[in-house]
Design brief:
With 265 residues, the protein is α+β, with helices and mostly antiparallel strands. The chain has 2 domains: 36 residues; 225 residues, no CATH class. It has 7 helices and 5 strands. Helix 3 crosses helix 6. The radius of gyration is 23 Å and the shape is globular.
């Protein structure tokens, strides 16, 4: 192929590419805008991404694979997820009904639970975390892993062989936040999680504190009102870990008891 022919082919290919890009922008202007990023949308989404990732830290965003206890997975039927303000005067809740079967095709690959693991280690961070962020993330994940490990080992005769806590918890918590956006004021909140067996008894429960700041409530309300969805392009950005704390102090026992009663009504 001579030089002129190569130039002609290159120009033709470039013209086709430009025409294709112009066509995509004309047919999908809004989706392309979200895909490539928009300053105004980014400003509204950023606080929600921060809040989402705080919650992701609480829900560890991964699978929990319990040691095989010989019990059928159908034993666990519900996971309750609730959000309450600090004095538990306001609450919102979702109940996740689960049917655990050994052939559950949508279940992800089991994640072996060890205290040394980061539960959200599968997340690809666009921006590297600072040493302080990494330390806080590791510390909290270690606390959660250790707590769950001890509980499961201690009461393994009551547990099913596999329990998956993944994006379902995060998704339902997000729905709670968006559905009740106008109810949330800046301040401290509790996330309550309880795992129930088929008989209705709670076999594991705990609660974690997290904070909603003023700019987060504004974004929650704005995004809910304008029906914005979170573009995938933002999902791996702004991934900093904020201090969400497991209720461990003596005074927290009363709070956990109150939450348990509130969310069992």
């Amino acid at each position: 192929m001579d030089r002129n022919q190569k130039i002609t082919n290159s120009i033709s290919a470039l013209s086709f590419l430009l025409a294709l890009i112009a066509f995509l922008f004309s047919v999908f202007p809004s989706s392309m805008k979200e895909l490539l990023g928009d300053g105004e949308l980014k400003a509204k989404v950023e606080p929600i991404i921060e809040l989402r990732n705080n919650l992701r830290g609480v829900f560890f965003s991964s699978k929990i694979n319990l040691e095989n206890t010989g019990y059928k997975p159908l034993m666990i039927s519900k996971i309750r997820v609730g959000i309450a303000n600090e004095d538990v005067s306001y609450k919102s809740m979702k109940v996740l009904n689960y049917e655990f079967t050994r052939g559950r095709v949508e279940a992800p690959e089991p994640f072996e639970l060890r205290p040394s693991h980061y539960f959200n280690a599968t997340v690809n961070f666009s921006n590297s975390l600072t040493q302080n962020d990494e330390r806080k993330r590791h510390k909290l994940n270690f606390q959660i892993a250790t707590d769950i490990t001890r509980k499961y080992i201690k009461e393994k005769d009551k547990l099913s062989s596999k329990l998956y806590l993944s994006e379902d918890l995060l998704q339902n918590t997000e729905e709670l936040l968006f559905e009740n956006a106008k109810e949330y004021k800046p301040g401290n909140y509790h996330i309550y999680i309880a795992v129930e067996e088929q008989s209705g008894g709670v076999i594991w429960e705990n609660a974690y504190r997290f904070e909603i700041e003023n700019y987060m409530t504004e974004s929650l309300t704005t995004i809910q009102a304008e029906s914005y969805s979170l573009p995938n392009v933002f999902h791996n950005e702004f991934m900093t870990f904020a201090p969400s704390t497991k209720l461990t102090e003596e005074k927290d026992k009363k709070i956990l008891k109150t939450l348990s009663k509130k969310f069992s009504d």
